Amino acid sequence: MPKIFPFKAVRPSPGMELLVSASTHDTTIKGQLTSLEENPFTYLHVIKPHLHFNEEKNPDKHFPMAKSYLKQLISQKVLNQDEKPAFYIYRQTKSDQTSFTGIIATVSANDYFEGHIKVHENTLTEKEAQLVEHIRITGVMGEPVLLTYRRQQSVDLLINEYTKDQAPIDFTDENLTSHEIWIIEDEAGIESLSLQFGAIDNFYIADGHHRSAAAAKYIRQYRDNEGGYLSCLIPDNQLRIASFHRIITKMDNFDKIVFLEKLKVEFEVELSNEPVTPVSKYQFGLCLKGKWYILRFKYPEDL
Known about the structure:
Elements: E1 4-5, E2 10-12, H1 17-20, H2 29-38, H3 44-47, H4 59-75, E3 79-81, E4 87-93, E5 99-108, H5 109-113, E6 117-118, H6 125-138, E7 145-149, H7 153-162, E8 169-172, E9 178-184, H8 187-197, E10 203-207, H9 209-222, E11 228-235, H10 256-266, E12 267-272, E13 283-288, E14 291-297
Parallel strand pairs: 6-10, 7-11
Antiparallel strand pairs: 1-5, 2-3, 4-5, 4-9, 5-11, 7-10, 8-9, 12-14, 13-14
Helix pairs in contact: 4-6, 6-9
């Protein structure tokens, strides 16, 4: 069974949370560049230093800059490391009041290699290697892996007990998403939460396959398997899968009729009079030359 471990977080000083926090998924490259130019404290300087150069990632060139920015934030007391190991309860509430609550902890690289942290995606070797280098050079894991687990009522009850009081860390970002963090640093709380999670069979990677693989490999290669990597664990009943869109342009010699015929080999293709939002498994929406289609995969049993 996988285990979770408390750790000493490096986090923003009181009042600096909004300036330091950085979204890497919900903003455009243009928006991130604006943040880099206007905000010397944004954590984007540490996790996306290549944006300063307007070029592809070059670990040898870019990651030392990330380390320099991190050291600067620490020396300026913008970031401070907690004195005691702790678990952190993290709650995110969207502007539509959708809320997610989980535990930020570290998890074992051994559990990853032994299959107790389940994967569902293949990873790219080059991307893994870049992330390993980022951890090695900066000394930190920039973003947590999102893990999920089968809901445990005992974990919920413990979280509810700690979140009765006002969160010591509480701020709202520019997207009107609120972020609250409670700290579990007492020995009884740490022991109890560790025990409750010890009853869970497996963790599952919801997002961050490359981060997880890279962190585990870094720990194996440079730490002799000692230590864990940063994760945010959210129960399965709170997961929400958002829409994931892809736009394809510049398709040379593209023939719409031939393309649709090739799709029909693997999919049922149905013309739609309105934009398509998938409502069931193995279903996709396709907008092609201004017309919408519903695609249904024919062979789910082969997956």
